[in-house]
């Protein structure tokens, strides 16, 4: 009888895994590969801030799971996981509702022989009062679209009234920095699209960070450079500032100051999604991640794996693998090899995370970051156009894992041609 591999979550990790497994086994008949995602299209998460500001249009750049599954040998099922029963080897999917709230498909159960959890992570508000109600968490396609709608409303209003608009972003990690820089670029560009009364003086961008520098996880030189670029762009940096409450008016700091913002974004911290709390049979941590061993097997289970942001894998150094796209991609590659080994009855190999450095985009033409050299040379600093090209090549690598070399190149070329003709900004 055919063995069924079910992967839940088609993001940086899950989709890369499903594509490779589907291409290898999908057309053979004895192994069935099935990918489940709550969305019908995939956008690589590090590009969410570009969706949010309208630099990319999800309807053009988004990958349709159904079509991709057809061409890459896996079956796609649309649904959100709500439960996992390892005894019965069954997961449960929530009912699917239409816009009016009517049930289109009721709750379903899906059986598996091998289960892979790859449902990603969400921002962590650390229970800050008012954050859930007043902030947009830039951690899903829906939230990026919500931000986009709010931005369009603000632009319309600005153009008519010439008042100013304030956008506050909590967290000066990669997401917050990239969003702030991209917003600046967008405001500079909108006047050519008929928003004649808008200039950068009308938009106040506040970036709020509890640490004493931006990009606190990255080397000093990268933080310093990003900080100076952001300051030059006119982005107001609030460093060593902790937010204790979020209200409709803005952010209240530990020192009881109010940082006013009509659009509020929370881009700090990562934890597993709330649904993980439902998986009571699995070892779930206080941060809603599932504990895995060094081969990414959920502890205590031989046929359940987890990878990417929803997994807690402690390295030999005692530190967990960081929640990054490069870690998700590396995990997908190792797990692909391990599943192949397991199906041949051979021993699986441990995952070893290799940090190749980090690159942070500072809008369309520049980026900044550090790359790992060898042991003697340590890390080296890159910036400007070269760093930007390297940053773009990370996305190219993701595309290669989804389509293979040739199709990824054709896809990129087609996208470039389309970009040349279509609007540079999505303003609807
Ligand atoms: C704005 C932003 C910018 C970033 N920039 C960078 C960067 O520059 N460099 C870097 O290394 N990392 C970056 N990251 C982090 C990186 O994107 C993540 O670490 C990476 O995407 C994790 O991959 P994943 O597969 O675990 O999760 P994801 O890519 O988040 O995929 C999770 C998938 O699971 C699906 N899903 C969620 N819940 C359910 C459910 N209940 N049922 C079914 N499906 C579900 C989602 O729809 C999604 O498709 C950024 C993150 C954000 C938000």
Give me the Rg, rounded: 22 Å
Largest sheet, described in full?
A: 5 strands, parallel
CATH third-level topology of the largest domain: FAD/NAD(P)-binding domain
User: So what's the oligomer here?
Assistant: single chain
Q: Report strand order across the widest sheet.
A: 5-2-1-11-23
The helicity comes to 25-40%
Note the total helix count.
11
Domain unit count: 3
Average per-residue pLDDT, rounded, comes to 92
Envelope shape = globular
Low-pLDDT stretches are none
> What is the first-to-last residue Cα distance?
50 Å
Give the structural class.
Answer: alpha/beta
CATH architecture call of the largest domain: 3-Layer(bba) Sandwich
Taken as a percent bin, the fraction of beta residues is 15-25%
Unique ligands: flavin-adenine dinucleotide
Given this structure, which CATH class of the largest domain is correct? Alpha Beta
SS elements, strand count: 27
The CATH homologous superfamily of the largest domain corresponds to FAD/NAD(P)-binding domain
């Amino acid at each position: 009888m055919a063995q069924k591999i079910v992967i839940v979550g088609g993001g940086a990790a899950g989709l890369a895994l499903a594509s490779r497994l589907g291409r290898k086994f999908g057309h053979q008949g004895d192994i069935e590969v099935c990918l489940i995602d709550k969305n019908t299209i995939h956008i690589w998460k590090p590009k969410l801030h570009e969706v949010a500001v309208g630099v990319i249009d999800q309807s053009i750049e988004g990958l349709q799971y159904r079509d991709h599954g057809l061409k890459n040998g896996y079956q796609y099922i649309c649904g959100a996981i709500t439960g996992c029963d390892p005894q019965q080897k069954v997961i449960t999917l929530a009912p699917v509702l239409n816009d009016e709230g009517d049930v289109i498909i009721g709750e379903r159960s899906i059986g598996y022989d091998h289960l892979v959890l790859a449902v990603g992570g969400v921002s962590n508000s650390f229970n800050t009062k008012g954050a859930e109600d007043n902030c947009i968490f830039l951690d899903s396609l829906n939230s990026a679209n919500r931000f986009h709608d709010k931005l369009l409303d603000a632009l319309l209003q600005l153009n008519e009234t010439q008042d100013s608009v304030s956008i506050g972003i909590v967290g000066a990690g990669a997401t917050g920095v990239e969003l702030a820089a991209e917003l600046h670029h967008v405001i500079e560009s909108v006047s050519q699209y008929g928003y004649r009364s808008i200039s950068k003086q009308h938009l106040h961008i506040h970036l709020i960070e509890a640490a004493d520098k931006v990009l606190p996880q990255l080397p000093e030189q990268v933080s310093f450079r990003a900080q100076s670029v952001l300051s030059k762009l006119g982005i107001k940096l609030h460093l060593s500032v902790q937010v204790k409450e979020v209200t409709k008016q803005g952010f209240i700091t530990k020192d009881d100051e109010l940082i006013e913002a009509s659009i509020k974004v929370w881009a700090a911290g990562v934890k597993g999604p709330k649904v993980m709390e439902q998986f009571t049979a699995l070892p779930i941590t206080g941060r809603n991640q599932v504990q895995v061993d060094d081969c990414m097997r959920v502890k205590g289970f031989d046929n359940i794996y987890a990878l990417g942001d929803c997994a807690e894998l402690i390295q030999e150094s005692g530190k967990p693998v960081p929640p990054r796209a490069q870690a998700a991609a590396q995990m997908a590659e190792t797990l692909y090899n391990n599943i192949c080994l397991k199906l041949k009855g051979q021993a699986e190999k441990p995952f070893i995370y290799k940090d190749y450095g980090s690159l942070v985009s500072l809008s369309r033409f520049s980026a900044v970051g550090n790359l790992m050299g060898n042991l003697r040379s340590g890390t080296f600093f890159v910036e400007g156009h070269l760093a930007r090209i390297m940053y773009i090549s990370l996305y190219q690598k993701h595309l290669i894992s989804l389509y293979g070399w040739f199709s990824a190149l054709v896809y990129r070329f087609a996208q470039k041609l389309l970009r040349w003709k279509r609007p540079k900004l999505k303003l609807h």
